[in-house]
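Morning!

As promised:
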Amino acid sequence: MYFLITLLGSMEIGEKMSEMRYEAPKTLDAAVALLAGANGRARILAGGTDVVIQMRSGRIEPELLVDLKGIPEMMAIAAENGGFRFGAAVSGLDLIEHKALANAWPGVIDSVNLIGSLQVRARASVGGNLCNASPAADSVPALIAAGARVSIVGPKGKRDAPVEEIPTGPGKTSLAKGEIVVSFLLPKRPAHSGDAYLRFTPRTEMDIAVVGAGVNLTLDGGGICREARVCLGAVADRALLVPEAAAALIGSKVDAPALDRMAAAASAACRPIDDKRGTREFRIKVAGVMARRAAELALTRARGN
Amino acid sequence: MAKNRVSATVNGDAVEFLCETQQTLLDVLRDELRLTGTKEGCGTGDCGACSVTVDGRLMCSCLMLGVEAQGKSIKTIEGMANGEALHPLQRKFLEHAALQCGVCTPGMLIAARSLLERNPDPTEQEVRYGLAGNLCRCTGYHKIVEAVLDAAREMRGA
Amino acid sequence: MSTMVKYEEKPLKIVGTRPIRPDGVDKVTGRARFAADYSLPGQLIGKVLRSPHAHARIKSVDTTAAQSLPGVKAVVTRDDFADMPSEFAAAGELTINFRDVTRNMMAREKVLYDGHPVAAVAAISESIAREALKLIKVEYEVLPHVIDVVEAMKPDAPLLHEEQFTDGVTPKPDKPSNIAKRLVFARGDLEAGFKQADIVVEREFNTKPVHQGYIEPQACLASASEDGQVELWTGTQGHFVFRAQCAKVLQMDVGKLRVVPTELGGGFGGKNNIYTEPLAIALSRKSHRPVKMVMTREEVFRATGPTSGANVKVKIGCTKDGRIIAAEAELNFQAGAFAGSSVGMACPCTFTRYDIDNVKVVGHDVTVNRPKVAAYRAPGAPIIVFGVESVIDELAKTLGIDPIEFRLKNAAKEGTQTYYGPKLGPIGYIETLNKAKAHPHYSAPLGLNQGRGIATGFWFNIGMETSSRLNVNEDGTVTLIMGTVDVAGGSRASMAMMVAEELGIAYDRVRPVIGDTTTLGFNFITAGSRGTFAGGMAAVLSARQAIERLRQRVAQIREVALEDVLWKDGSAVPAPGSAKQFTPMSLVEIARMAGKTGGSISGQSEINAQGAGPGFCTHIVDVEVDKQTGAVKILRYTIVQDVGKAIHPAYVEGQMQGAAVQGIGWSLNEEYFYGADGVLQNPGFLDYRVPVASDVPYIDTVIVEVPNPNHPYGVRGCGEVSIIPPIAAISNAINNAMGVRLRSQPMSPPVVLKALGEAAGGKSKG
């Protein structure tokens, strides 16, 4: 009897493996239907640079993979209301090579340009970077600083949300079961504004952010900072929007005292962990340094606009 | 059993293969198509040894599923030389002693070709950053960088 | 009996040029076959189940369910392998004990590290093999573990081996210990020496284990026949040693195992040891099908050898004018799960760059719950030299003496008595120091937050058992069969060059191949920088024997005495002054007639090569430190190294450059992170950070050639010594830039930033 049970169990496992199904729907409706109909573990495949590794290591064992790259909305980049909408499955390289978007949002593009290697960027998507929900994701702080929003579809229809509302913790998002992030909307870039994203890594390339900092700011005609958003990566369980750091810049000429206050506020907001990528103490110190350097770069860009 | 049937082009040849969903493009190239020139160094996209181009884009074949190759044109190291004539990068790698063990070499060459297609006249730093996705543990990169710069010079006719 | 061949200075036509390596074209076209590229009809895929615990007793292993999974053809556990008594053998630079080898390839009583094999399966596909692993039930009794060397040496530390008593102390201890062995090397009167010294500096250093980081994971393919014959294809630095180890642990005749060395995708000492090979053979025996096993990168990091992490103490005393009077060191090395670290090699390397009358070096080999260490390029030396060269730098700085000048005052030279045994023969240490001092790099200006460091290295280089055979083919081309694996440096090219030089023929007329274990007698592993030294000596002797036989044929054909026939520029010619003149015969002509004049012509040699010439080097490095993040950038790097003779200078430069960049990675960012549970947190290239191309500058090389008198072309060996100085050189450069002295490795940004912060707070010393 024991032997029989074992055998049945084994066959089940054998069957499960061969049954890992791959689907590449052509419409959002079809994708939503597939995910809704999946009777167990379904996974979305965009660039695959996280999912394929997780499958291989056995961390996830999906029964259904839904490849979204055949859906036009997921792959488009277009101007919208003076800003840009881009599909969540667009590869990093396609974004980087989009001249107009890159000119308007250089900080966002810098962040995408830091994801993995060239080889990885040819596949990895910003949607995947967001939904994988790593606190160290490079594009997320830059998008949050930029005030980007996401458009979502799911079994209950469409909705949209600010990017900062999506990640809730390492590997966790606020997305409901079956929901898909379809696209990102980067707002219209006001005059005299600029953004920047910088990160610290031990190596020059091929690394994961130990600390990331995205800064987006807008000056008035007199060079006074009127709006600012500062977002840090890898210093908490998810990307951290730091209003206190932004407040230190608003109303200032983004001069040394303001930058000092901003850096201090950034460091003060951190609640990082010690891990293989950096110590707590190091992350707190360097968060201020990176935020400051990003603000300086954003300022240079704002002055040039 | 329930394998996926895929048609693609590899080094200009039409190919058809069956693969399990979880098989990567690298698995398919090596185990199904027997093109073992593309190497696996890490399986996680961190070493670049499995670099190929897919529709002209440089990618890690370990990060792409075989089933995603449907309708795509893939180029591997086996297609780099033109018959007897080695690609200038292949020749310069030999002349400059830019390879030792040779495991990173196929991916490095594919990445270098892709780099020179985008930037025919790179600086030393641009070559270093352009090849940063490809680990080499033998050479210290010195002779690889020299070989790529020399190949670029020759390919520009300079 | 050992062999040495005298160096002869002569005009050279081929040695010293830069032809293309024979394995080159296959490597740029993807045709080169590495172990994972081999497949056989009907082959199965083998996978290993590994321990998730750092230290645990295995209570039971139940493979019933796995064996029943359709597609699974064989499962092996500890029950499939015989236990081995303690018996020691050499494997590369390190010594192995077969009792441990059999326990490392498959855990027996206990698992001793995260990743330790507990079972292996062979199945018709990789996915089925992976599923089968999940069905194996292992019951563990988890035990307290220890991964730090200082902790492991404490009397109350968790004990790995209940039967391990510290060797090398008298009387024999009555309690078992993690300290497997104590080694002492001493010379002179240490206490008297320190009394004479004007200043004494004593410091402690800590380093972490680092991995060789070869890009090709271990792979093998085994095929066992029903008659007991086995064929094994594997990526190895020494196929004869792998044959010996596999035959031993599988209790089979050596002659029944044929090992074919495939193209090797990097080793650096890490492929001196068997891992999955005996498992693949056992699975093949059991399944009656060929079995292929390829490690994942994660398995490579969790279960194959890094080099030791260590705690070392260095004390040096010198006079006011910079003469070292006494030097003492203690080296505590992690061995990993089983005894046998590189501490035995590191002890003699500690001070051997210097001529010191009073020396004492004590080493401890300490077992900890980490993978068993393997050799890594100049095994152990970089670790202790980090400490010694840092203290030397501190002494020079304190005395206001230029660091190269300080070393010159104390430099070892021909005739210097070492503290580990021999007197040094002709060596080029002083030459490397002088050339470094004269190099423009040494006097180039430095900017803000930039600093320059110097450090030097010594490595023995070795000879050992080597054989080769040279066949003169019927058209006058030559096949050179060698038993020393070309571990990627290009030794096939250099040996073909030496043979072509001897024979007086073109380089491309010689085809060098690595023969499998059935083609030649025993060859030691390619380790210790012996490839071109010992392999080259054997190749030259094979060529000389072939020349002798070629001359004999000509003497026979031309009906002259052998001494009337001289070999010159690829032809047999009449000896000058000889009365018997004859028409010269070229190699091609003799070869074509060989069938009619007595059969094919060959030469062979079986030697135990001795007389390896030690290698020395001096490194100069410039760094820039980011004060706000602690990031250290390598701005400029120059190596001056004595190689004896560079047979192929480009490949010699490649060895120097590759070694230095491995050293840079070791210095700055490579380290293992273990959780509190003793489980490895970064088993991949994302978080085990080997340098990428944009992390490093060009590595300038200056080759010094002080010939080794015991090699026909003066070769010393060049592969290892340049990994020794980088950690110290970079630490010294950081000190020069920022005034802080780092005594732990890696000098990663968090470590550097913390040190800068402490220095600013007035807490720094040195």
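The first strand of chain A starts at residue 21 and ends at 23.

Hope this helps with the figure draft.
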